[in-house]
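Anyone? Bumping this.
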Amino acid sequence: MPHIPVAILGATGAVGQRFVQLLADHPWFHIAALTGSERSAGQPYGRACRWVVPGEMPEAVREMTVLPSTPEALAAAAPNARLLFSALPSGVAREVEPALAAAGYAVCSNASAHRLDPDVPLLIPEVNADHLALIPHQQQRRGWPGFIVTSPNCSTTGVVLPLKPLHEAFGVRQVQVVTLQAVSGAGYPGVPSLEILDNVIPYIAGEEDKLEQEPRKLLGRVVGDRVEEAPITLSAQVHRVPVFDGHLAALSIGFATEPTPEAVAEVLRDYRPSSEVAALPSAPQRLLIVRQEPDRPQPRRDRDAEGGMAVTVGRIRRCPLLHIRLISLVHNTLRGAAGGAILNAELLVQAGGLSQEVQ
Amino acid sequence: MPHIPVAILGATGAVGQRFVQLLADHPWFHIAALTGSERSAGQPYGRACRWVVPGEMPEAVREMTVLPSTPEALAAAAPNARLLFSALPSGVAREVEPALAAAGYAVCSNASAHRLDPDVPLLIPEVNADHLALIPHQQQRRGWPGFIVTSPNCSTTGVVLPLKPLHEAFGVRQVQVVTLQAVSGAGYPGVPSLEILDNVIPYIAGEEDKLEQEPRKLLGRVVGDRVEEAPITLSAQVHRVPVFDGHLAALSIGFATEPTPEAVAEVLRDYRPSSEVAALPSAPQRLLIVRQEPDRPQPRRDRDAEGGMAVTVGRIRRCPLLHIRLISLVHNTLRGAAGGAILNAELLVQAGGLSQEVQ
Amino acid sequence: MPHIPVAILGATGAVGQRFVQLLADHPWFHIAALTGSERSAGQPYGRACRWVVPGEMPEAVREMTVLPSTPEALAAAAPNARLLFSALPSGVAREVEPALAAAGYAVCSNASAHRLDPDVPLLIPEVNADHLALIPHQQQRRGWPGFIVTSPNCSTTGVVLPLKPLHEAFGVRQVQVVTLQAVSGAGYPGVPSLEILDNVIPYIAGEEDKLEQEPRKLLGRVVGDRVEEAPITLSAQVHRVPVFDGHLAALSIGFATEPTPEAVAEVLRDYRPSSEVAALPSAPQRLLIVRQEPDRPQPRRDRDAEGGMAVTVGRIRRCPLLHIRLISLVHNTLRGAAGGAILNAELLVQAGGLSQEVQ
Amino acid sequence: MPHIPVAILGATGAVGQRFVQLLADHPWFHIAALTGSERSAGQPYGRACRWVVPGEMPEAVREMTVLPSTPEALAAAAPNARLLFSALPSGVAREVEPALAAAGYAVCSNASAHRLDPDVPLLIPEVNADHLALIPHQQQRRGWPGFIVTSPNCSTTGVVLPLKPLHEAFGVRQVQVVTLQAVSGAGYPGVPSLEILDNVIPYIAGEEDKLEQEPRKLLGRVVGDRVEEAPITLSAQVHRVPVFDGHLAALSIGFATEPTPEAVAEVLRDYRPSSEVAALPSAPQRLLIVRQEPDRPQPRRDRDAEGGMAVTVGRIRRCPLLHIRLISLVHNTLRGAAGGAILNAELLVQAGGLSQEVQ
């Protein structure tokens, strides 16, 4: 069993805290360093961080000193930690992640900054593990000893996981998606209560673009040194709702070959990732849970299925306009953020993608 | 100015209370009688009714005795009240409303029971005032001295009001609609708090069928003794969200002629109902309010516009799949229920549709 | 390790579901029968029960037939189950529980019906395990082969657990308590969302009386065949708030001997139940958790501590009127209801209180 | 009828917006200038301000330029506006308000900075209009041509208004107060939704001190150049709850002379401020509304009574520890903030307290 020191970039934010929580008891990884903003750097994590995720801050990190997000600081504090999890704000990630990859780090990022770079894998192990093949091209083109791998937007994850087997089986061509997203997706402090109590906000900056672009890359295939996007047209409308955790998406899907609702349910229920991916420590027992009840999935009832790493699907039925409608639910800060990025790192380790130097 | 006694059927429920509230100070109508369930009948309204809508129960109705919903009880208690507002549960309305029409009453109903009957107007004055022409056919075919006029489902109203001018201008052909609906739409006691706190329910029994059928009739035209439905295909997915009042709908629309978002905004902004309709006491000054902000409409901020009788539209932009996307918001218990039915009654009065006998 | 078949009375309600959830994997008990209302009886539990507690209904109970709550039905369906957990409504419990005790059952009840009967133990194992001594008197006086043991009101439990060590140390004399209670305390369907969204209700029927009476019995001592109540005066004001689980209480306490806040914190932190009680399977590792942060405990953050079986205390400071103020939080459906009653049953088993016949 | 130009200090925050809203249609005052933070100064109000209170931003202020909060800027932009309403943060108010009083302005402040200064009136017109007598002493001692008048903390207002007539009638001696406060009390952005959804926070920084001190001054009497505080001991415990507007307080009160609950209700119901105060434009028709229902007042149902300027009281009953318990509700941003400060200014105008120079 590997025993790999890792660092978390942007560890004081809401997603950073989920990384801390999930890595505190991880069978392969242990937290060797934490970074934060300039304001936080130098303070003990327990003081710098307002803990907002459920449960208690793990004891082991309380006294760790928050570092700045620089290669020098990381090298000095944790010379053996070559694998980094990034929960940096996207603006910061744009500069910092390449600098760290250039310094030889393997960066598993949850930030959006590099997701659509042609040579950067946008990765969900159960969807497109083969996109890891971009890494050597990325390293060669950029002259980096390290590299960046990204995980998708939280809502994208909940949409793409059910689309993957349907795309394989029937050829997805068109997707209308309307989301109802939890407040934790906006981080901390995030959405003011004055905005969201007894209310819905039909807007999240930048989110619709991500939902319309990322699935095309995730469902595309690697051709040479780049990804040929899947020929799918998506239309997204997003909403913030007064829910703590759990993003719900109402999908209407058009296919190359029209399936019956029963066939869709069967394909989703029968989908299994490769045995290598299924064996990763953070992979859920059941990946896609298909519910029969007319009123499921629901955020509060279904978000924690399989430790928040499953996606729950329900209300599969015909669409009068496209072919099939369904509802999908993902835990946005677990599967849709920190959990997804950790699964990516596990895949890297398993695939030997952490070179001796990096590992 | 007319001074017309009216009765409210099903006055103790949430929509019934909105009727009471709106009619308590109405310039044309005054409440002459109230009916309720068998359990309530015989009690003073102030005791039988758990008041749940904002503000206080009007003093004038507290001591009125709740009647059973029968022609005999109404005739005995309020012989001059020939105009009835029905907030009856649909199952009850199916039997009771025809009996009352047969007894000579004009029934303005908010129940769904008879909305799709071919000879019953499904009416929004600003949309299809000419559908009143069905009434003589209804009376003749059924041998009724009275008649039934219905108002649409609350969500339908918020969707059809902006569709109307767009249909006139560009020919609506396809509509994807996803709703986020307030708990007041389920009446009282309605949605248990254990179901909806920190949650979304992607299901409301029967609601999607209504949203897919009613707009076709509302936007259709009267041909002889029936309505020729508009050739529009709709697909609806509905959700209950933890919001008190205000149904929000995310629409994606395909047209016969593709308009620009600017043209859509202009058509919505410029739409005016006929001067007769605009002059009705409950008609809003501004019917369709077009917001420019990227994050509007919102239920809490926009539901009360124009006393809850306007529909607010925002986020008008192109759709990659159909032509145009937009967000629409309606106050579900005012414009979408009691207020809509009262506006229908005002139209009847103005049109002389209350015969001497009925009036 | 004992292996004891048990039945759950009133298993379809919210507290009944918590019993099912906690007993599905219990090391000593297994569910042999479930009862419900007349409406439910005869149906499979999976159909009769609208599952509202977090997580999924355990597979093992889905196909079990719901029984009526009678000795005959229980004897026929599960002849070896002599230990019953009651989540019956209080009105039903008043008749049914004595009938079952008379038929030889040991009834661990969460209902309020018999809590204040002089010969019925009102029991929290960490507080007054010695009150089990009432059972023989109860059996003798009533001629019952079985008996009834009750657990307190959910809010009482959160108040009495911290009061117990303080009473021992300093003599509690006066308690002002104001509660902020979760909606799950009202069961299902319970509080309508129209009542509680964006609102507080400063009233729960009967709750204040329970909070003012039950602690006196719980902190009293057994004298002969009855409990001599503790000489404490309590004043309670209760509120329902839009929180799912977790009852919070703001206490102000007067003592026989005024302690410092530090002494209070120390006494709470150092309190340990007897080793027998601490060894019970449902007993928490830490019973009373004292938080130092100025803004804790909070329902969402602290209710699940120790599997919902701990009580969390914070904001210990002087009171200008009485002596000490503090905030206490209990998980109302776990420690405060089903979990508490199961702990009582574990104590009975350990104490040999289940006679051969009953066991 | 006077026609008085005024300025609002700190106009972009939540309380500042309430000032704008209430003054936009005020019969005596009109808004001549608005100030904001350095970041906002120079921008049009419509751009600088994220409008968060219900309803729309008044048209008249959209294009007004936000000024810095300095005498110079105010003098240049609105030379005739000598009356200022301050919604400044307390830290800013500490410096800025004295500077403005020194420059000759009459400052009606909602900030806490100067509330407890011995020569500054802490004022509720219906409670202690005679405290205006402090103003000449303030001006003389400090050598100011202008002066400062303050309105109390939002929760204090909801507590003191019912205490005033009870103190007159029976002599209030001890008050236990536990509050459940709305999120709007924290301003904007204020409480993050991640903190308060499905939660309660038993802490608001500084709030308990205010609740324990301000009522003593408000109910005290002017002796020479200072206020002799009322000899009342208060103990406060405050909570933030997921409610938009409306602070609820659970009170337990000890008196010099024990009254019956009926006597308390009668005194509250019969209380009338002086006819001068009752005639002020913002004074409510009914000041104290006593509800009989067992479950009132409630924030959502009662906060808007009398345009948010009344205080609603309910659940008046004996207390086993002190004498009387009751529940009180105040609209925290109307009566408890902007509305209260405007009423103070109206009193000043009526009392001739705005000197020629100031007026």
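Late reply, but here is one note on the structure posted above: Chain C has a mean pLDDT of 96.
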